Each structure stands twice: as C-alpha cells, then as structure tokens.
Amino acid sequence: MEPTIPLSRLIFEPPTYHYKAGVAFLAWLNGLQPQFVMLGGLERARSAAHLRRLFELAAAAGALSTPELAAKRMTQLLERA
Length: 81
Hints:
- There is one protein chain.
- Helices cover 58% and strands 0% of the residues.
- The chain is mainly alpha-helical.
- Helix 2 crosses helix 3.
- The longest helix has 14 residues, at 48-61.
C-alpha cells in the first residue's frame, strides 16, 4: 500500500476536481479506454509534466497492468504534446 500514497496524492492534488483526468489517464494507460479523451476536454486539465509524473508513480506502485502498453501510450502522448 505504501507505494500508492504518492500516486494518490498526485492524482488528488489541487485543484482536486481535476482528479478525474488522472483516473481516466490511468485507465487509458492500462488499456481500459481506447483513447485518453474526456467530455469537455477535461483530459487537458493536467499538464504533460503532471501526467508524466503520474505515469512514473503508477509504474513504481505497480499500478500498470501491462507496462509495455502503458509505455507505448505514454510515448505517443508525449510525442503529441
């Protein structure tokens, strides 16, 4: 449980109402969503640097079910940023 603490703190950092972007991002990294797209463009609520750190903390916490897929998707996201 200990490695998930920094991950959860980052997801829920202020402005807290943007936590949904982090949850959707993790779902996309894990292959549970075909795209990282949210209503109203909420996927843009967090910066690329924030998402990169979220990826790093998720990997450290073992929260990526398919690390190869997550790494591929993260690379694609950063190339578009």
